[in-house]
Amino acid sequence: MNLKTFILKRSIQVVISFYVILSLLFFLLRLSPGDPYSKYIDSDMTQQEIELIKKQMGLDKHIFYQYLIYIRNLIKMDFGYSFHYGTHVWDVIKNKILNTILLFTTSVIVSALVGIFLGRIAAWRRNTSLDAGLTIASLVTHTIFLPWLGLLLIWIFGYKFELFPLSGIYTPEIWLDPECGFLRKALDVMHHMALPFLSLFLLHFGGYLLLMRNSMLGTLKEDYILTARAKGLREKDIINRHALPNAALPVVTSVGLSLAFSINGGALTETVFSWPGIGRELVMAVSHNDYPLAQAAFLLIAIVVLLANVLVDILYAFLDPRIRYE
Amino acid sequence: MRLLEVRDLALEYRTKKGPFLALEDIQFHVEKGEVLAFVGESGCGKTTLGMSILRLLPENAHILRGEILFEGRDILRLSQEELRRYRWKEVSMIFQAAMNSLNPVKRVGDQIKEAIQTHEPDISKGELKRRVEALFRLVNLPLSRIGDYPHQYSGGMRQRAVIAMALALRPKLIIADEATTALDVIVQDQILKETKLLQKEFGLSFIFISHDIALAFEVADRVAVMYGGRVVEMGSSHDLEDSPTHPYTMALLESYPTLTVERRRLRPIPGDPIKVTGGAKGCRFFMRCPEAEASCKEITPPWVEVGKGHMVSCLRR
Amino acid sequence: MSELGFEGKGPLREAWELFLESSIGKAGLIILSIFALMAIFSFVPPMIDPMYHPMKGVDPEITTSQPPSLRHWLGTDFMGRDILSQLLAGARVAFLVGITAALMSIILGTFLGMLAGYFGGVVDTLLMRTADVIMVLPTLLVILVLASLFKGLSIWSIVIIIALFRWPGVSRVIRAQTLSLKNRPFVEAAKALGASHLRIMMRHLLPNLVPLAFLYMTFRVTAAIVIEAALAFLGFGDPTTVSWGMMLQWVWKTGHMFKAPYWLLPPGICISLITLSFYMIGRAMEQVLDPRLRKDWEG
């Protein structure tokens, strides 16, 4: 199996998975107590508007017809009407996607890289105080309760020392000022992103570090490491050229497997730091009983996770020839 | 000057359950162009012995005394950098489980190139390519497979690649540790024959480590039989095959089927191989020996020469 | 248990001894027993005085959040409720949620994994593809969506939903183990004697799978505790129980996070520490069971 067929196969799997998820959501809505379409209808709506929505969604027709309409609407990116914002759901959400991806990808990638780097050091200096220190630090940061960590960071760095803004993604004065260039704006966003990034980073890097450390220790016992040493390679080269590429593989797998966990953390972080992303939108939609918005946010997150999983798989195949040249 | 000479080597592993004497009183030499085989059950110390010649021992291994002289230089006294330059250039190794001794994420050709480049950093790209191709030809591997990954090779091909790698720097001595055990008999036979030819052609010396005494007789000039971390009998393949003297050698021979002797009964050696903790006196084989006497438990048997260059360490001989 | 690679002694005893060699495991056990004590003592304060009831007990003399005092060792929340009592009650809820959810997901995962491995074919494909889909879903967000569909969730429905979304990891491992078990002589023999599928699974396979399943339980416990705490923190917890997550929500939503560290710190420390202790125990158990992590190279 070459890389192309591999990607094709995974993409088909993503489509099927996504289809299953959105179908489940449709039928769960029908199973939930009360009138199913009440979830799409706000108390402020006029009779006329209600009739329109009912007609649009085919709510007077058979359930399978409704299902087809549901699918068709999703394909058209028509997620319905948000009660809370009073606009189309897509208009609410589309501006939030990039914010989420920005915060999420930077924190996952940076924490994986740092975890791999430090895990390598911990394994290399195993059973020293450095190793013990790194292991304990990772255990603690990896199991810390994320929203609480966020609150602590806001309290200490935002409130006490006033080093970082308490919430949000940008300072309106800077963005409204036509004099401000791109660099200034980018720096402003980074300034806002520092604390949410830090809390997601702290939560994640420890897990990757611990995994990398164990994986490295296992790899160093492999026969090909002995071969490399027998060949007269320098220790540095044995670690970097032979052990590292093998030991990093389980970490890459784990990045994929823990994406769902990371997305949970992402939503919590966005909420605590009022970072305008899809996760926070989902949380707020649920507390406002804004079902169309919640559903759309969830489906969007699901597709992001599924696609990210494919990206991780491709990366894995790229790193491991046993997958690439099957 | 002898190519390799090992004098009075003793080594222990320090484990959680206490020290464990893996090698004791090891004394042997290898001449230029000679094949010496070490034979014994698993755990007898033969792999440890091979590893100590390249100083590839795990951290918990401690050499208690002895010298390992390669062309007169004691390699136990080499600095890290000297050791690095000695490895593979002078002595290379074909490992037990050759299947796993290639890195799965690196191309086979590159792994061989790496061995050359490490020791000849100034080599040109073209020369490097030529050398690797020559090695592939030497071990009968198709040149089209140089860029393949190990998992794309069959077991026999991987074995050949590992041999090519061991030959890459034309070392004076190659240690082959159960090099062909994992292969099926036909491939094993083929590879052994080819290796033997290469050995003759280049005048290489080999240390051949195996549990299979019949195979050892076939490939080696001299054979050393090991038990419990000690060599119990050593001599030419001829002498050992025709007149095995130590009870353990005799037991080993009886436990192996041969094609030449008609249907000899396959007999497992009774008892378990021992693990020695500390410098116990007496013969190591005492517990399992059919000929043991009370004195065997008390006195460490001295070396006796029973024929020219045929040494045995047994009180009853 | 012999499947896990132990010989001699009692396998459980040997595993326990190996476990105690790990300082991480021991530290985890010690922290965990402190929380167990907290859960047990949670019944004491309301008995002393009704004002120490974690939910209903309000100190009549207090109307705002107060710092620690002799009367309230850890201070009070915005309504004058005792923070220490709430903290103790929170330990009880954490254990309840963590252990029941983990137990349920382990049972579910073991059975589904065993079915998939034993029957193979369509059953296997169907179950494992379902597991794949569930595995990529962020559990917390799924529960949020369900909460919006079903209008608020009780602590028990939260527990059940966590279990429903946390079985795939276990079932994969159990399935692999079943595959290796089902061709062993003792299963073949039972088949030849005409034992029913149910009997083979219950009498021959299950006893060999249970120890493995329990290893995975510790990690499920941490997941369940964290999810419940996060839900409560976001305001979707069971309003009739007091959990650490809920305490944090109160600090946050009532704007006390910058002025009442005595209130902000304890619940967060508790959630983090209980997660840490289960996690450490899980890691120590993993080290006991995975020979690759403890293999000593011997010539």
| Radius of gyration computed on alpha carbons of chain C | 23 Å
- Total number of helical segments of chain B? 10
Classification by helices and strands of chain B: alpha/beta
Assign the CATH superfamily of chain C: MetI-like
State the shape of chain B: globular
Distance between the termini of chain C: 28 Å
Order of helical and strand elements of chain C: HHHHHHHHHHHHH
Low-confidence stretches of chain B: 261-266
Low-confidence stretches of chain C: 1-8, 293-299
The overall strand count of chain C is 0
Percent of residues in β-strands of chain B: 15-25%
Biggest interface reads: A-C, 57 and 48 residues
Any overview of this molecule?
With 326 residues, chain A is mostly helical. Chain A is built from 14 helices and two strands, in the order H-H-H-E-E-H-H-H-H-H-H-H-H-H-H-H. In chain A, strand 1 and strand 2 form a beta hairpin. In chain A, helix 6 crosses helix 8 and helix 10 runs antiparallel to helix 13. Chain B has 317 residues and is of the alpha/beta class. Chain B contains ten helices and twelve strands. In chain B, helix 4 crosses helix 5 and helix 5 runs parallel beside helix 6. The two termini of chain B are 32 Å apart. Chain C has 299 residues and is mostly helical. In chain C, 72% of the residues lie in helices and 0% in strands. At the A-C interface, helix 1, helix 5, helix 6, helix 8 and helix 11 of A face helix 5, helix 6, helix 10, helix 11 and helix 12 of C.
